[in-house]
Structure formats: C-alpha cells, structure tokens
C-alpha cells in the first residue's frame, strides 16, 4: 500500500476541523495545531444553511451538530414599528438550522478523531513556507506534504505566504449573547421564525437555538458608543425595540462585542501551502455563511486532492480547487457585504429596498445562491 500523504493544519476552528476530517476520510494522515489550551468556540449560536449541513452529513458530524437544534420555517425582517417588511418561507430543500457553536465544533472534533486526525493544542503557528512547512512560536518547524492555514482572520499563514490582497473591517459590529427561553416569548404567529428587527442603524436579530435558549445579536455601528457598550444598556435597546423588552431584560451583565472582517487574497495557495476559511475569505455575518463557506471549502479541498498520489501533484490540484471554488465563495462574500449596506439607509428607504429587492426572484436567487449550492464532494 502506498504511504499516506501528510497534512498539517494551523487552526482548530470550523474550517480547520472540517478540512482535517475531510482529508483524513480520503486517507491523508492529518495533524491539527490549535493555539488555545483546548478547542474552543468563540461566540454562542450559529446559523448553518443547507450547504453547510450537507458538508456535515458527508463528514459524519451532522447528527451530533444539530441534535436539539432549531429548524426555522421563516426568515423575517421587521421595521422600526415592528411591522413585517418581508417574511420569506424557508423551503424544505434549503434547510436552515441554528445550534450552539460549541456543539458544532464538538461534532467536528469527534468526526476528526473518528477519522484518525491528531489534534495538538497550545501550539501557536507563527508562519508557513510554500514547502508545506509550519513554523511555531516555540521555535519548532513541522513539514508535511501539505500545510493548511485555517487560522482565522489574523492568519499568520496568510501573512507569511504574502497572499493578502485586502483586509477591511466593517463599521458595524455586534453584541452577541444567549438568553434562556421562556414559554410565551413569541406571539402565536411568530413561532418558528428568525426575526430581524431594524430601527435606525440598530438591529436586533432574534434566533431560537433550542427549546431552552434564544440567541440575540444586537448590531450597531462602532460609533454608536452607548449601544455597543458590552455592559448592555437595556433601557436604550428597549427604547429601540420595545416589543422585545422581555427578551432584552434577560441579557446577562456583560456580553462580547465584535466587528466583522472582509478578506480577499491574491491566491489561496503558494506551493504546497494553502489557506481557507476566514483566513482566506472572511465575510460579514449578514448571510450566516462564513462558517458554512469555511467548512464547504475544506471539503472541496479534500475532494480536489483525493486522487493526488505524490507531493509534486499538489500545487496543480490546489490551483484547480481555487479556480473551481472562488466564484461561489466570492459571490457569497459580495452579497453578504451588500446586505450589510442596508443598515445605513433611512428606515423608510430600507423598508422599500428590502421589500422590493427580496420580492424579485433574481435578488432572492443571489442572496440564497450559497445556501442552494451543492458543495463539491457532497454528491448530487
Ligand atoms: C458576529 C458573527 C456572527 C457569525 N454568524 C455566523 C453564522 O451564523 N453562520 C456562519 O456560518 N458563520 C457565521 N459567522 C462567521 C464564522 O464565525 C466564521 O466564518 C468561521 O468561524 C470561520 O471559521 P475558521 O475556522 O476559518 O476560523 P475561526 O473560527 O476563527 O478559527 C480559527 C482557529 O484558529 C486558531 N488560531 C488562530 N491563530 C492561530 C495560530 N497562530 N496558531 C494556531 N491556531 C490559531 C483559533 O484559536 C481558532 O480556533 C459569524 C461571525 C461573526 C463575527
């Protein structure tokens, strides 16, 4: 039997673990190096659309990732008077589920372990070379047939390979928190919905995650210093969204604040080293697809490398992977950025734009193209 090809991966987030599991399932010997003391999810809840769910199915992580998860029926936008702007039914063949990030990460970790992936924590990568090498903060260097940078938005792998074209941070950011759910939280007609409420440049996104928990994202521009306070100014947010006061009251003492990055790269690989996920194509979370794109691209990478039998064949396979996958990834990134722009429109204009745009089949097709995408490697 031929000797297995080897891969070393910087970063044990959604992208790194999905890539590791996918490569290991096709016979690669894979090691993941994670900087933190343990694999740890950053944030509470996460949306996973049809494309991401299909990747999880292929990797054998689906059941664990979505056990007890919420599957919504409608995605709804509301204006500053709590009137419905648009209520889009989610078709059965375009599932959208929300789950705990920690549960999703745990499901991917377990899929990795079952496939024989080695996971090393407390291992900080400080750079990579095109020869498939990762360099570490402790002075060590590891070399493999393939090195993967899935080390997030501040990727050292991307930086040292010189691949970055653009890294832009948004003006808008989010306070994210999980609150306990209570009976009667939603009016009878509102159960089963993801509800996005707008008022001026503030937005409140309400996402049931399980029967017991609801995920709230409170977004506003970084310049709105009162609203972005991590010790949440509840009277201020209740004034903006009075009909959701009962949920806002349940927010804990302190929540985290984060802005979003958009990252574009000249190329996703150099020699036998490659980047993916937020390291290569971070996007604002408006379409709930950054994690989906990271996992999808990891599976696509493993699929592109499936028939490679020598290290010499790897650079060509990486180029072909990038050529094939860039279009869908950049499309999703573009539409996620565009969606974010409506934040800065006056209320009445935003209402008109969202209502007219989403009613147009072409626009809806663009917005949901990534969700409808059949991930490479996920069959027909
Ligand atoms: C507010 C918000 C909401 C979002 N909501 C959604 C959503 O609903 N659905 C969705 O699909 N996406 C969402 N996203 C996007 C999603 O979180 C990211 O796209 C996804 O986590 C990217 O995965 P990744 O593995 O590429 O990077 P990361 O999740 O950032 O993982 C990188 C990993 O690498 C490790 N690391 C970093 N540097 C090093 C180093 N030097 N050495 C070793 N290890 C290192 C980190 O500790 C981490 O474990 C959201 C993002 C934000 C900010």
Task: Describe the model.
Strands 6-5-14-15-16-13-17 form a seven-stranded mixed sheet. It has a six-stranded mixed sheet with strand order 8-2-1-12-19-18. A three-stranded antiparallel sheet has the order 3-7-4. A hairpin with a 4-residue loop joins strand 10 and strand 11 (141-143). The protein has a single domain (6-169, 260-372), classed as 3-Layer(bba) Sandwich (FAD/NAD(P)-binding domain), CATH 3.50.50.60. Helix content is 34%, strand content 28%. It has helices at 14-25, 50-59, 62-66, 101-114, 156-161, 234-240, 245-248, 278-281, 290-304, 314-341, 347-359, 361-367, 369-372, and strands at 6-10, 29-33, 45-49, 70-71, 74-78, 84-89, 96-100, 118-120, 125-129, 133-136, 141-143, 146-149, 164-180, 193-199, 202-208, 213-221, 256-265, 269-270, 273-275. Helix 1 (14-25) packs parallel to helix 9 (290-304), helix 2 (50-59) crosses helix 9 and helix 9 (290-304) runs antiparallel to helix 10. Bound molecules: flavin-adenine dinucleotide. Flavin-adenine dinucleotide binds at residues 10-16, 33-36, 46-47, 124-125, 150-152, 156, 174, 176, 258, 260, 277-279, 285, 288-292, 294.
């Amino acid at each position: 039997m031929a000797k297995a090809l080897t891969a070393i991966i910087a970063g044990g987030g959604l992208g790194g673990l999905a890539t590791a599991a996918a490569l290991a399932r096709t016979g690669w010997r894979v090691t993941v190096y994670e900087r933190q003391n343990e694999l740890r999810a950053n944030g509470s809840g996460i949306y996973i659309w049809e494309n991401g769910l299909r990747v999880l199915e292929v990797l054998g992580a689906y059941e664990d990732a979505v056990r007890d998860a919420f599957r919504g029926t409608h995605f709804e936008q509301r204006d500053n008077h709590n009137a419905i702007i648009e209520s889009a039914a989610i078709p059965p063949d375009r599932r959208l589920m929300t789950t705990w990030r920690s549960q999703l990460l745990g499901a991917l970790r377990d899929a990795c372990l079952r496939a024989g992936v080695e996971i090393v924590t407390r291992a900080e990568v400080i750079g990579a070379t095109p020869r498939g090498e990762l360099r570490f903060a402790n002075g060590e260097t590891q070399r493999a047939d393939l090195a993967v940078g899935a080390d997030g938005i501040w990727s050292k792998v991307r930086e040292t390979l010189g691949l970055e074209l653009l890294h832009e941070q948004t003006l808008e950011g989010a306070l994210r928190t999980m609150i306990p759910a209570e009976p009667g939280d939603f009016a009878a007609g509102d159960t089963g919905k993801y509800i996005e409420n707008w008022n001026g440049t503030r937005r409140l996104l309400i996402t049931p995650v399980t029967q017991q928990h609801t995920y709230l994202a409170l977004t506003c521009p970084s310049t709105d210093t009162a609203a972005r306070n991590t010790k949440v100014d509840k009277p201020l947010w209740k004034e903006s969204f009075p009909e959701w006061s009962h949920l806002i009251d349940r927010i804990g003492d302190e929540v985290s604040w984060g802005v979003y990055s958009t990252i574009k790269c000249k190329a996703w690989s150099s020699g036998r080293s490659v980047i993916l996920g937020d390291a290569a194509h971070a996007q604002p979370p408006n379409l709930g697809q950054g994690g989906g794109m990271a996992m999808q691209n990891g599976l696509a990478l493993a699929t592109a490398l499936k028939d490679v039998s020598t290290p010499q064949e790897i650079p060509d396979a990486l180029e072909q992977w990038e050529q094939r996958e860039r279009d869908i990834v950049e499309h999703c990134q573009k539409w996620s950025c565009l969606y974010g722009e409506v934040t800065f429109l006056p209320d009445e204009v935003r209402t008109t734009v969202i209502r007219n745009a989403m009613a147009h089949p072409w626009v809806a097709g663009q917005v949901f193209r990534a969700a409808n995408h059949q991930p490479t490697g996920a069959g027909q």
